[in-house]
Amino acid sequence: MKAPLAPGIRLITSFSRDSWYRGFILFLTFLFYTAYHLSRKPISIVKSELHRNCSTVIRPANLNITNNVTWCDWQPFDQDNYQTLFGVLDNSFLVAYAIGMFFSGIFGERLSLRYYLSFGMVMSGLFTSLFGLGFYWNIHSLGYYAFVQIMNGLMQTTGWPAVVACVGNWFGKGKRGFIMGVWNSHTSVGNILGSLIAGAFVSSSWGLSFIVPGIIIASTGVLCFFFLVESTSCVWFVSEGLINGAISGEPQEVTEEHSKAISFCGALSIPGVVEFSLCLLFAKLVSYTFLYWLPLYISNVAHFDAKEAGDMSTLFDVGGILGGVIAGLISDYTGGRATTCCVMLIFAAPMLFLYNAFGQRSLATTIGMLLVCGSLVNGPYALITTAVSADLGTHESLRGNSRALSTVTAIIDGTGSIGAALGPLFAGLISPTGWNNVFYMLISADILACLIRDVYKETGSMFFTINNLIILTVLIFLYQ
């Protein structure tokens, strides 16, 4: 009797070739953008090591010093204006990222995504490592670290438009919210891994907190060069060329039809692009302020050391994973992307207030509130940067032109990155007056993000009016 086919083989053969390619591309792009975010996170972990409370540090017996207050700090961050200097580093990266993003999408539409991503990841790995090498080369120049941050910010712009365009090329609109919600967890996974890797070295040799992530993202760039398949047409090209070549005995050239890449102004005219771009500006302002300042906030308020504060801050990103998946599921089921974003942002505002007021009272309270805040803040951010961007990049007004995804994604994320630059800057300027004021700034930005005109289109005037009344009520409650 002939043995039946092994269950594992039956499972493998039950999936079509396209399904395998889709799964493979989803995994690869997830890995790539995890590496991008992993390499961004170390600066927020290392801040509390560059400027420390030296009175709690055991001084080496052979160290001859005259200043007992700042002897353990890394110059030039040993000064009283260290928070402003940290703000300079943050904004060197974020402003360069925001400006570069508007051009990145244009390049992404016209260059091979595989070459573009590979180049960006290798160069980003180089500049991330150069920041860490400042520790071993004993560099104490703010200009050096700011220059490295600027160059790294420009290199990092290669990532988002390219990976969204690649995933959008492979997946249809039907389940895009859920698929991209799960896929977008790479942002939080990268932040978590970046925190853990940086935290492992921060107290002993903070240079490795940058060098190790730099090596990781450069390695994924090499992986991208060898394995990324940009779209279904690339697979068709290879398959048809091989089949026709086998039949005729000669390799056949298969031509692929190219539509004209969309212009910047043309992308702006797509309905919804401007509205969601402005929404993301405020949502990303809140998210990136947490990304860059949450470990320092936890260290100052809860009095944790640098590693403990970094580990605790990862809970915000764990909540972000849940929020992205939930937002994707709800928006797929209801068909209301804008409404889903708006409702989550409305609930986020009072939760931020409660976290600042009561979040540090116990460990359980801290964990619970960080998870909830991360979910409500990062859920809309994830939805806009993934499913919404992909929807708008394949909008019906484009009449089938598939070469708008990268430009639309870059416009939305570039506008959001302006908020990402402003948030940490404002936090650096406001934090000396007290953390309460930082949270009032975050709550205000969160409420402004709710004012999306597309909610009116999805739900009608009554819900839009109720939405604005709820926002007004929250404002009165928080600022009375």
From TrEMBL:
It catalyses: D-glucose 6-phosphate(in) + phosphate(out) = D-glucose 6-phosphate(out) + phosphate(in). PANTHER family: GLUCOSE-6-PHOSPHATE EXCHANGER SLC37A2 (PTHR43184:SF9), MAJOR FACILITATOR SUPERFAMILY TRANSPORTER 16, ISOFORM B (PTHR43184). Signal peptide: none annotated. The keyword Transmembrane applies. It is found in: Endoplasmic reticulum membrane. Belongs to the major facilitator superfamily. Organophosphate:Pi antiporter (OPA) (TC 2.A.1.4) family. The chain crosses the membrane at residues 20-38, 84-103, 115-137, 143-171, 183-202, 208-229, 273-294, 338-358, 364-384, 463-479. Keywords: Antiport, Endoplasmic reticulum, Glycoprotein, Membrane, Sugar transport, Transmembrane, Transmembrane helix, Transport. One of its GO terms (molecular function) is glucose 6-phosphate:phosphate antiporter activity. The lineage of its organism: Eukaryota, Metazoa, Chordata, Craniata, Vertebrata. PROSITE patterns: MFS. Coiled coil: none annotated. Residues 25-480 form the Major facilitator superfamily (MFS) profile domain. It is a multi-pass membrane protein. GO terms for biological process: phosphate ion transmembrane transport. One of its GO terms (cellular component) is endoplasmic reticulum membrane. It comes from Salarias fasciatus (Jewelled blenny). This is Glucose-6-phosphate exchanger SLC37A2. InterPro entries: MFS (IPR011701), MFS_dom (IPR020846), MFS_trans_sf (IPR036259), SLC37A1_2 (IPR044740), Sugar_P_transporter (IPR000849). The keyword Metal-binding does not apply.
